Amino acid sequence: MMKAMSTRIERIRCIRTAPAGIRLVAVRIETNQPGLYGLGCATFTQRPLAVVEAVEQYLDPFLRGRDVSEIEDIFRASLMSSYWRNGPVLFNAMSGVDMALWDIKGKCASMPVYDLVGGKCRMSAPVYIHTTGAEIDDVIEAARREMDDGFRHIRMQVEVPGQATYGTESDLHTHQNVDSPTSPQNVFEPNDYARRACALFERARAELGDEVELLHDVHERVPCSLAIQLAKDLEPYRLFFLEDALPPEDIEHFRWLRRHSHIPLAMGELFNNPNEFTPLIKERLIDFIRIHISQIGGFTPALKVAHFCEFFGVRTAWHGPGDLTPIGFAANLALDLACPNFGIQEMSRFNRATEDVFPGCPEVRDGCLWPNGRPGWGVDLDEELAAKFPFPDHPFNGAWPAIRRRDGSVLPP
Ligand SMILES: [Mg+2]
Questions:
Q1: Which of 153, 219, 253, 292 does the annotation list as catalytic?
Q2: Which of 42, 223, 239, 344 registers the highest number of CB atoms within 10 A of its CB?
Q3: Is the pLDDT reported for residue 172 higher than 80?
């Protein structure tokens, strides 16, 4: 029997855009079939130009002519082609390709990607939304507004006066404060922060009631002993989860944290290497896996992680920050819908410009993310409009300035 002409990769290129001021990188795969292309998310917003080079100088020539249907083989061959594997630049580049190939497969099958991998086991994905403020009252007020807007899961972060506190306006200012990275504005003291975080949740639980789910991100900024103390101190306020209490370099300490506290733990937006997260999952040391799926190579490896987690009672909470294209959100959502061990989806609202640049953005409604049911990811990219939102000027091309203790030592951002 004659084999039908296969669909092949003709060209792989990147599209850069910043409709919300955040540097986003999307990958577009052109095929030999007229009008058939795929889109993927390759956003590593602190090193976007390095990812563009990895895609266009290495993966494009390596993969031209390949059959688009062979997603697993293309992932494996790309991984091995650099010999030195893992790492955010190469994995984000591979993610752009991987997601674009799933987009093409969905379009060829006239199915959303979640249908290709088993179909929906829920109609929509409940999300959590961020709240922040300079004062505890401000954060509680912001949470009330989000609850009125239908959100049932709220992340809360409060500023430590005079310090660069993660997840607050003060932290955003440090990003602009690149001329004097040792200025007091970029200082953070872990003990001050831990006391303030406990005060926030004591008030929040008392004033917002028992029904709302509260979440908090430590952003790995405290020493291990303080992380354990903080987890214990927050227990009375029944958090949905405590995120990134420890850095990935200290995963051994999760055994101690688990032994001393029953607070639900979420971990993992920084993970790249499977050796970082597999021990935490198989030893049941965390409750939620928080991987940023383009950081581990895309949808293909993330689907495997989700299934692996299912057998160990670990739920998914894929990283959903502002530095993710709506294509990446659609990939998160496909996993949320198709995986029984879904836990929660982090959500950053799209601004109007982002919705215009990426027609078909998943919709946020009633505290949930909803799919649009279109084939592939269901999200397109208006390149002409994208070009109207170039990367903003920044002396470090968007890299994080250093956050320091008062003694000058550098902390995780
Ligand atoms: Mg986080």
A1: 219
A2: 42
A3: no
Ligand 1 centre distance from Cα of residue 244 (Å): 7
CATH number at residue 359: 3.20.20.120
Report yes or no on 339 lying in a domain: yes
Out of 166, 193, 253, 319, the active site residue is: 166
Residue 268 Cα to ligand 1 midpoint, Å, equals: 8
Mean pLDDT along residues 51-70: 98
Q: How far is CA 325 from the centre of its chain?
A: 10
Query: Is residue 166 flagged as an active site residue?
Result: yes
Tell me which of 41-55, 168-182, 206-220, 253-267 is least confident. Answer: 168-182
Tell how far the Cα of 189 is from the centroid of ligand 1, in angstroms: 19
Q: Is residue 104 part of a domain?
A: no
**Which residues does 406 contact at the CB level (< 8 Å), separation at least 6?**
187, 189
> 271 C-alpha to center of ligand 1: Å?
12
Residue 59 lies in a domain: no
| pLDDT exceeds cutoff 90 at 174 | no
In a domain, 124, yes or no: yes
pLDDT tens-digit series, residues 354-400: 999 999 999 999 999 999 999 999 999 999 999 999 999 988 888 88
- Which range marks the domain in which residue 321 is found? 116-375
Could you tell me which residues are beta bridge partners of residue 84? none
| Number of domains composing the chain | 1
